[in-house]
Known about the structure:
The structure holds two protein chains of two kinds.
Chain A: E1 2-8, E2 14-21, H1 32-39, H2 42-52, E3 86-87, E4 91-92, H3 104-108, H4 110-134, H5 141-154, E5 159-161, E6 168-170, H6 180-192
Helix pairs in contact in A: 2-6, 4-5, 5-6
Chain B: E1 22-31, E2 38-47, E3 53-55, E4 65-68, E5 74-81, E6 84-91, E7 98-100, E8 108-114, E9 119-124, E10 129-134, E11 139-144, E12 154-155, E13 160-162, E14 168-174, E15 181-187, E16 192-198, E17 209-216, E18 219-225, E19 234-241, E20 251-254, E21 257-262, E22 267-275, E23 281-291, E24 297-302, E25 308-310, E26 318-323, E27 330-335, H1 336-344, E28 348-352, E29 363-367, E30 371-373, E31 375-376, E32 381-383, E33 390-397, E34 400-408, E35 414-418, E36 420-428, E37 438-442, E38 446-451, E39 456-461, E40 465-472, E41 475-482, E42 488-493
Parallel strand pairs in B: 12-25, 28-35, 36-42
Antiparallel strand pairs in B: 1-2, 2-3, 4-5, 5-6, 6-7, 8-9, 9-10, 10-11, 13-14, 14-15, 15-16, 17-18, 18-19, 19-20, 21-22, 22-23, 23-24, 25-26, 26-27, 28-32, 29-30, 29-33, 31-32, 33-34, 36-39, 37-38, 37-40, 40-41
Amino acid sequence: MFIQVTAYNQNGKLLGVTTQKTNKILGSNPEFAALRSYVDNDEYLAVIKHESKGFQFNSEDITKNYPAYGYELPGWKYNKKGYPAYGVPGGYGMGQIDNPFPSENDLWNWKNIINTGKNIYNTKKIIAEKYSKSINQNSDKNIDLITTYQLYNSGKLYWKVYDNKIGWERNHDLSIKNEYGIIVYNKYLDIIK
Amino acid sequence: MKKNISLLFVLLFNLSVIAQPFLYYTITSIDTSNGEEQYLSQTMRYDINTKQVEKYPQFGNHYDQIVTDPSQQLVSVSRYYHNNSENYLIMVQDSSFFMELNDNINSVEQLFYLPTLDKIIIFSNDYKLLSVVQISTKEVISELIEGSGGSSTLNPQRFAFLSKDSSKIYFYAVDTLTRKEQVWTYSINQNQIIAKRNLSTWGKTDSDGYIIDYGKNDVGVINSYSSYNNLNRDFYFNIHNFATDYSSSQIYHNGLCQSYFTMEGKYLVLMNITKDSSYLVYHTGAIEIYNTLNGQLLKSLTLPESGIIYTSDLYPDNLYYTVNLENDPDVYVLNIDSILKADQKNYNIKLLNSTGTLLTGGSLQYYEGSWKDAINNGDGTFLVDSTLSSVSLKMTYEYGTQTLSNVSMANGNVAVFQTVNTTISIHDSSGNVLNRGTAEYNADGWREFGTMVNGETVKELLPGSYTFRVIYNGVQKEITQDISVSSIVEFIFP
């Protein structure tokens, strides 16, 4: 990587330009206290803890390979220490953002990706709360929270109401083994203990 | 892999001459090899005849969901991503037909393959989108609808169903403004909704809500239900033909259950369902079979819990109750006629009139520690489901009763109750017919016997001793007589 520095005086007059070749600039992870302080939202902090354990960047060189997905990733540059943490099918960084695809700023600036992730999370929360109201059922914060987490992961509600004779049901389109909403909810409960 | 199939009942036709129904399903595994939990789904199918399991479709990568049309000629497969999905149609017998569906279709609920009309009908997005595919051109038109429904215990879903002539589709809908539960009728030829009718018209009055649990060939079962938050657990079911508007009588069930029918609505099958702590709904395995003509409970069964009901138009009279599909499937073939015929071999009881014709309107009890109701087939025959070698049978008809003691329950035995054509006649002491007067008989209280015509009135009664009375010109006379000895009861007035 090359870094160019340009200096101006107070009047905007160009004083000089210098260019220097450097090694790679890689990321480093914040301390947890700094992370929690910046996130300032324990609900979303639970997502970060689950998705990346709070790591925006790989803390060491790793080898990721996903044969079940048909992904062959040995030797990939994103396996290296200091690169944004990657997980299938396309997530990066603390919140494993993949839709919309993370920007360069999201990849390399942990504060930026937290802002992006929180926006996504809040959008999902609005969807979950709107759904509860729309089906005119008794709801509570816990149901909405689990639903929000599941939406964040899969775009699917964790619970739905198909008819009023049964009321809330586990989403039929959700694999019985996919307990993302519950798992992250339990992490949230651990955080707020 | 060894697969079990438990054929409860022998099918009446040669399985090899008709294509087999497949059971389509999805298996999911969790890959943690990279320290992350990755959910991997794979669509599969199970051949009931060969008991073979295979990945289906065999081409392409992982799919998360597979839906078949009732004829099993067409499937849709879906792959889910965050907030979007890819959906494809595949012709089962012609793999060259492979079509990606429009982006506005998120999750396919039901499919109908109609080759003679060159159309495929798709219900998707929680029944909020109806799409019509022109097979020859692959052109798709879609319209927003207000359909509803979804069952985790039934595959494929049956909230939308074809008319018998395949010209229309009926589907369950909830009007967004009035919240009325309705059946909407979609004309396949006109490509439009042609009718919206309230289910309360045919359901039980004053129920909390109404839903079509299951439908096919013009016929649906209307579930008049108590809401989930109502302590009252009353549910009523009636079979309704949406083409003729014929409705069966209401059949009551206490507790949450899912309803199905076979034989075009002749038999109603109620299966208890419940929810676990994560709100997963499943069959408990308790099953009741009713005759919809008279509302009689014909049979109770208990199967393992957590089965899924599969259906296929290839065998329209079968319900396939399938447990443990992902590992070692057990398939219980519920063919109701076969079930009842198997019972009939045990013991058969008939109620005949005086001329030897089957007589409806009777009820039978048998003694097994206490008096228990026998199964009434509604045609004058009855079934007793008892493990005892002999029982007492008590027939009730027109309030009169007859008891047969120590009746052998050996296979092939037939017990017959036959009524007596009983005549009450009135005349004066000179033998002249008296045309007026009212006749009654006592059977657990005084009952009307009939209207006098030419000094006589007749009624079919079970044999035994009854007290009869006639009032003529303010004068009452009573006679106690065993009609099995003499069937003519003669009153003489001065």
